């Protein structure tokens, strides 16, 4: 099982009044990593996969420890834990080599923007996602 690795820069504006990255900002980090991951099959590679849109149906997030601002990026590792006919679940860890700051998951539903409704996962998308499929939860 492969993991998608995304190096996410921290911005000064990510901090809150307590001097650490605000909890809401972590959702932006997850979004950046998810978009980078899902658009590996984007039209630039000649594939229509995931280009029609997708929507987030659910987020779950566990804040493990505070992250303070620094110049080095934080790593967001992403992988797939579940694939159904019309949704997928992506798991994440926001971390450094020595510690984890956040563990999270997102249920994503492919969406047909033109028709205004959810759609099925294509065979090409499923094949791509299966490379990142790990049905075992991350070790705490």
Automatic annotation (TrEMBL):
Root EC class: hydrolase
Coiled coil start-end: none
A single MF term (Gene Ontology): hydrolase activity
EC number: 3.1.2.-
A Pfam family reported for this protein in Swiss-Prot or TrEMBL: 4HBT_2
Annotated InterPro entries: 4-hydroxybenzoyl-CoA_TE, HotDog_dom_sf
Residue ranges crossing the lipid bilayer per the database entry: none
Keywords assigned: Hydrolase
Protein name: Acyl-CoA thioesterase
Phylogenetic placement of the source organism: Bacteria, Bacillati, Actinomycetota, Actinomycetes, Kitasatosporales
């Amino acid at each position: 099982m492969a993991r998608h690795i995304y190096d996410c820069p921290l911005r000064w504006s990510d901090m809150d009044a307590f001097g650490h990255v605000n909890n809401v900002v972590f959702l932006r980090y997850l979004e950046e990593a998810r978009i980078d991951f899902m658009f590996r099959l984007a039209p630039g590679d000649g594939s229509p996969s995931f280009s029609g849109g997708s929507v987030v149906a659910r987020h779950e997030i566990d804040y493990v420890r505070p992250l303070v601002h620094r110049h080095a990026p934080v790593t967001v590792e992403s992988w797939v834990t579940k694939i159904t006919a019309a949704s997928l679940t992506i798991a994440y860890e926001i971390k450094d080599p020595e510690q984890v700051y956040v563990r999270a998951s997102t249920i994503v539903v492919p969406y047909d923007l033109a028709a205004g409704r959810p759609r099925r996962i294509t065979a090409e998308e499923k094949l791509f996602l299966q490379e990142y499929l790990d049905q075992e939860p991350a070790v705490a």
